[in-house]
Amino acid sequence: MWREAIGRLAEERTLEKEDFLVLMEELPREGEQELFRRARETARSVFGREIYVRGLIEISNVCRNNCYYCGIRRGNREADRYRLSREEILACCGNGYSLGFRTFVLQGGEDPAQDDRWVEETVAAIRMRYPDCAVTLSLGEKTREAYRRFREAGADRYLLRHETADPVHYAKLHPAEMSYENRIRCLWDLKELGYQVGTGFMVGSPYQTLDTIWEDLQLIKKLRPEMIGIGPYLVHHGTPFAGRKNGSMIWTLRLLAIFRLLYPEVLLPSTTALNTIHPEGRSLGILAGANVLMPNLGPAERREKYELYDHKRSTGGEAAEGIRLLETILGKIGYTISASRGDYGEHGVH
Ligand code: SAH
């Protein structure tokens, strides 16, 4: 059963629901190794042994939203809030630039103080100072007009995980004032405005089932994002989901491999969440087909405050200044850091 399922996935790049269930539920150890091997061979045929790095700058942990899973939700009174000024962000970019980063990802809560005009001017300032760099935003749900202005100011990419493609599941993860429809509207707007789009979801979020994950795969098939971000759901003690179980590393790795085999050229990050749930998570992700890492370029004393989940890693190979350590870690599994911006499609079809 599983051999045929992997064969169809790797050779025809298709996945029927029965095969998906086999790969998630009935894969023996040997089958899992085969799945990961095929996925990393596919990644190597497109990207070689080069890993793209993006410098992540967490610009604010102030958020007007109240997502039940997220540690920086508005309702978490214990969160120690901060926001970076434009000058601080530019300083992070400068530091990153000298470390070799050519992509900056500005991620944050939906902070009303960093309004559309502020974001637009910040993007323009980064583009002006670092014209050879790509600017990626990950600032949540905005109006189409705002996305248009950010794009005009020079933003190239936008990361917005859909979180779940099942509206009923979505409503169990978010308060009533948020809607699945708006999240999806945002993703299509971003696509139409010419962004390279990243979407994705947490693996093992409360109420998630294999049926909802299957819906995630269908949405991704329709949207065709340039990047797919997935990582295990991890509990945060200051949320309504405190006391729940963390998501599964195994399922995260299998999904990474499935996405790599379905979409050989897609950008697939090995996430901080994966590296938080397991000390070798980052390398295991790469060996399952991931090809992107996002070390943290933010000021060290702020990183621990951007606490989406408990025990989030922000030092060593997760920190931009740990880039040499990261090189060593990657070297051990036979990979190097790419010097390129790593735009989608750069490698063409091989
Ligand atoms: N405000 C932005 C950025 C959110 S943080 C936005 O809405 O897109 C980026 C991602 O972290 C989220 O999309 C979510 O998938 C993930 N995340 C949040 N809480 C998490 C948790 N407890 N465990 C694992 N991942 C989490």
Task: Describe this protein's structure.
By secondary structure, this protein is of the alpha/beta class. It is 43% helix and 12% strand. It contains 14 helices and 9 strands. It has helices at 2-12, 17-25, 29-47, 86-99, 116-129, 144-153, 167-173, 180-192, 210-223, 249-262, 272-277, 281-287, 300-303, 323-332; strands at 50-53, 55-60, 103-108, 134-138, 157-159, 196-203, 227-232, 292-293, 336-337. Strands 2-3-4-5-6-7 form a 6-stranded parallel beta sheet. Strands 8-1-9 form a 3-stranded parallel beta sheet, covered by helices on one side. Helix 1 (2-12) packs parallel to helix 3 (29-47) and helix 3 crosses helix 10. The model has no long low-confidence stretch (mean pLDDT 96). The structure holds S-adenosyl-L-homocysteine (SAH). S-adenosyl-L-homocysteine is lined by residues 69-70, 107, 109-110, 138, 140, 160-161, 163, 202, 231, 233-234, 236, 273, 308-309.
